[in-house]
Design goal:
Layout: H1 18-26, H2 28-37, H3 43-56, H4 64-69, H5 72-80, H6 89-107, H7 113-116, H8 121-129, H9 136-149, H10 157-160, H11 179-235
Length: about 240
């Protein structure tokens, strides 16, 4: 069970679905899988995925051992069946299975063991970053989610989570506690995306200008050199 400071299952409102959120709050593996699916799809879609997957497997929770040993094609079928669990169901099915295989090999299939005895935020970040499909940013966001909503707070967890660990922020799924905060996080993501796009456009424009200037300068130099050479040939 994923527990809060009070020792009870955490109360989440990420998926915006009571059943899906209840599973996320009591199942460490469901929370990890939801985080893994959280890319290139709306956050609610990603974090509803674990509940839908459990339903399609005929269970009330996800089991790492069972998923790890599942026939790959059949498991992909669980993701591609309509409605699909993700925008890229086949590739995400493979990633979820790889995650579970890793958990079985390294943590005896116990997802909560990833963070249960982590002494520091840095150590926890390293463990999360080692999970298949978890890059640094995803690892930091999940670390922030553990600290802010699950009460998993080893020493230095906010620092290890980077900007996602900041109190009062609305940067990621770690800060979603209901419809209002979901809207704020979504707005932040859209602003960040727009800023990144503008910066990339500016960089491209600067690069093109620099290349044009360099080409013009090279052409001028070549023309001068050719003219001088031509004069010498004429004199001969």
């Amino acid at each position: 069970m994923t527990e809060s400071d009070s020792g009870t299952a955490a109360t989440l409102r990420i998926a915006q679905s009571p059943e899906a959120d209840a599973l996320l709050g009591r199942s460490p593996l469901a929370a990890l899988v939801g985080m893994l699916l959280d890319q290139q799809v709306p956050m609610e879609w990603a974090f509803t995925g674990p509940y839908t997957l459990a339903e399609r497997m005929g269970a009330d929770d996800l089991d790492a051992g069972r998923i790890a040993a599942y026939d790959p094609d059949a498991f992909t079928g669980l993701f591609t069946a309509k409605p699909a669990l993700h925008r890229y169901p086949a590739s995400m099915a493979q990633r979820v299975q790889q995650l579970c295989q890793f958990l079985v090999a390294e943590y005896d299939g116990d997802a909560s063991a990833v963070w249960r005895d982590a002494a520091t935020g840095g150590e926890l970040l390293k463990r999360l970053n080692a999970l298949p499909g978890f890059g640094k940013q995803k690892a930091q966001i999940f670390l922030a989610l553990l600290g802010k909503q699950f009460g998993v707070r080893p020493k230095g967890w906010r620092e290890a989570a980077g900007p996602y660990g900041e109190a009062g922020s609305h940067r990621s799924v770690a800060d979603i506690t209901g419809p209002e905060s979901l809207a704020e996080v979504r707005a932040y993501k859209q602003e960040a995306k727009a800023a990144a796009k503008a910066a990339a456009k500016k960089t491209t424009k600067t690069t093109k200008t620099a290349k044009t200037t360099k080409t013009a300068a090279k052409k001028t130099t070549t023309t001068r050199a050719t003219g001088k050479s031509g004069g010498t040939t004429s004199e001969k």
